[in-house]
Specification:
Elements (H helix, E strand, L loop, with lengths): L2 E6 L5 H13 L3 E6 L5 E3 L5 E3 L2 E2 L10 E4 L5 H7 L1 H12 L3 E5 L3 H6 L7 E2 L13 E2 L4 E4 L2 E4 L5 H13 L1 H10 L3
Parallel strand pairs: 1-2, 1-6, 2-5, 6-7, 7-11, 8-9
Antiparallel strand pairs: 3-4, 10-11
Helix pairs in contact: 1-5, 5-6
């Protein structure tokens, strides 16, 4: 069974983070909502506070198949400033394990050279941070083990793209129908 961790920092974009969690859990994938703050409750950019499943220190990264980074501001900045998470993102990338980011968060991959020579997308205001990427205007882009998406309005395609990578096209199509998407 696949296991995914979605990381939450103060100022995360609520829809981007929770849509992924919801879609994957509906599909039977084990998903942990993880706080990088040392506190179980994290407040998003629109003042919605959500209780997390785990603290960063409790994550067994060897058991994870994917790291997901939601966007939002200052959520993206806060994620990137948390060096222990960035070390794990870089480790996953080096091991060709899945890394996924939406909205402003793909800029983190750009800053680390992870989208160089790859197809990728981000929120239009952050496309310049996709250093060396072939920037696409698609809702979600999968290039190898890197998944990117453009923003709140593309959260469902992002979640479905992640689901397809973990459980196959048929599972993603079935979920699409269930969501009436």
């Amino acid at each position: 069974m696949s296991k995914v961790s979605v990381f939450f920092a103060p100022g995360y974009e609520e829809i981007e983070a929770l849509t992924v969690v919801d879609i994957l859990r509906r599909a039977g994938i084990e998903v942990d909502m993880v706080s990088i703050t040392g506190e179980k409750k994290v407040t998003g950019s629109h003042k919605i506070t959500v209780e997390m499943d785990k603290l960063f220190e409790e994550v067994d990264f060897e058991q994870n198949d994917m790291i997901v980074l939601p966007g939002g501001m200052p959520g993206t900045t806060n994620l990137e400033a948390f060096e222990p998470l960035m070390k794990q993102v870089e480790d996953f990338y080096a091991k060709e394990k899945y890394v996924a980011a939406i909205c402003a968060a793909p800029s983190i991959f750009g800053h680390r050279g992870m989208v160089k020579g790859r197809n990728a997308c981000a929120n239009p205001g952050f496309e310049s941070h996709l250093e060396g990427a072939n920037v696409k205007k698609e809702p979600a882009v999968v290039d190898g083990h890197v998944i990117t998406s453009r923003g709140m309005g593309t959260a469902i395609p992002f979640g479905l793209a992640i689901l397809e990578q973990l459980k196959g096209k048929e599972a993603a199509e079935e979920m699409k129908g269930k969501l009436v998407y």
